[in-house]
Every structure is written in C-alpha cells, then in structure tokens.
Amino acid sequence: MLCTMNRRAILTASLVLAALAFPVCASASVRQYVLKHPNREHCKAHYVKRVERVKVHGRKVKETFCVYQAPKPAPRPTPTLTPTITVVTASEGYFIPGQPSYKTVSAGVDTLAAAPGNGVIGVPVMVTVVNQATGAVLGSFTETSYSPSCSIAKELSGGNWVLKGVAVSSYQGCPIGTVTAPEGQGIGIEGSFAGNAQYAPSASKEELLV
C-alpha cells in the first residue's frame, strides 16, 4: 500500500513539474514581451509593436506586445560591369593557286577606354552565320577574343553559295560545317559576347561573308 502511494505521489509531482515547464518553453519560443506604456515607450531593436486582444479576468482587453522580427539581410550591391564592344571581321583572303577562295574571320571584345586590339583577351565570342534575306541562322561557332583568325572557304555551285570551314594557307578552318544560301541572298556573320562578372555583354554589327 505504501509503495502504491509513493508511486502516485511521484506521478503527481512529475505532472505538476511538466505543466509548469510547458508554458515557460512555449513563451520562450514566442520571443515577445508586453509593452506596459505603449504611448510613451518603444520596443527594443528588432522588435515591432503588435496589438492583440487577450482575456483578463474573463474580459477581452487590448494589450500591446513587442514581438521579435528577425532583421532582413542587407541587399548586396550590384557590381558595376565595364561596358564592352564586340567586333567581328570577315576579310577577303589572298588568292592562292590551287586553293579555294576564302575569307578570314576574327573576333575581339574591347572596352570603351581601350584602343582596338587591347581589349578583353581570351573570352569566348559566339559567331553566328545568318541568311541576310530571311534572317535564318545557318550555323554558329565559338571563337576566342583576339585569337588567330580562322578561314571559311566559299564557292558558287548550282546557283547557291556554299561555305565551309576549311584550312587555307596558314589559317585553321573555322569550326563550322557546310552552310548554303541562294546566290541572290547574302550571307552575313555577327558575334556576341555573353559577358562575365567583370565585363558587360555586347554584340557586333553584321559583316558580309558573301
């Protein structure tokens, strides 16, 4: 009988302690406090006023609380990018007996302050070949800014222009397959630089291949 009473006493004490501990934990998680004089007091830093209706002696009254509000992280400043100018050129190649007619293609990215040829070296430039009459993209390849020029062979065949990246003389062939367009429709070439963490993107004017 004594053991049974001791067990009941221990259980009752445990329940009382648990009941006392619960509201303490709950209030700690809320992170708020009552503002006793809201008309002449302000909340602490990172706390905001909030008016709520609460029961006091069975009646609902307005109570002003200061509720914690986590500070928002400061916005990161947007980096200022250096403006650029992309230039793509298509130059007529020298006539070489036994070699096809060709054009050399080069790409460069400059800044406004830099003299041509002293700009952003080594960045990728997307070179696109387009049908000038229809605007259709015929092919594309990537060149490196201010890398050695590459060559594209050209010929008329059956009333069509046929262009292909072919090594001619000391030039490597541009990495592009065969593209065609009717003789009466010009083929243009243009370049674009996507930009990076330091330099702004830019696009070139269109150059005539044929």
Question: What characteristics describe this protein?
Answer:
210 residues; mainly beta; Immunoglobulin-like; 2 domains; 6-stranded mixed beta sheet; 5-stranded antiparallel beta sheet; disordered N terminus
CATH class of the largest domain: Mainly Beta
The span between the termini is 110 Å
How many runs of DSSP E, i.e. beta strands?
Answer: 14
By secondary-structure content and strand pairing, the structural class works out as mainly beta
Give the name of the CATH architecture of the largest domain: Sandwich
Q: What is the count of distinct domains? A: 2
How are helices and strands ordered from N to C? HEEEEEEEEEEEEEE
Per CATH, what is the topology of the largest domain? Immunoglobulin-like
- SS element count, helices: 1
What does the overall shape look like? rod-shaped
Mean pLDDT: 85
Fraction of residues in helix: 10-25%
Low-pLDDT sequence parts: 1-5, 9-28
Beta percentage is 35-45%
The largest sheet, given as strand count, sense and whether it forms a barrel, is: 6 strands, mixed
Written description of the protein model:
Residues 1-5 and 9-28 have low confidence and may be disordered. 22% of the residues are buried. The strands form three sheets. Strands 4, 5, 8, 9, 10 and 11 form a six-stranded mixed sheet that branches. Strands 6, 7, 12, 13 and 14 form a five-stranded antiparallel sheet that branches. The chain has one helix at residues 2-30, and strands spanning 32-34, 47-56, 59-68, 84-92, 102-111, 124-131, 137-144, 150-157, 160-165, 172-173, 179-182, 187-193, 202-203, 207-208. The protein is mainly beta and 210 residues long. It folds into two domains: 28-73, no CATH class; 84-208, Sandwich (Immunoglobulin-like), CATH 2.60.40. The chain is 14% helix and 42% strand. A hairpin with an 8-residue loop joins β12 (187-193) and β13 (202-203). It is built from one helix and 14 strands.
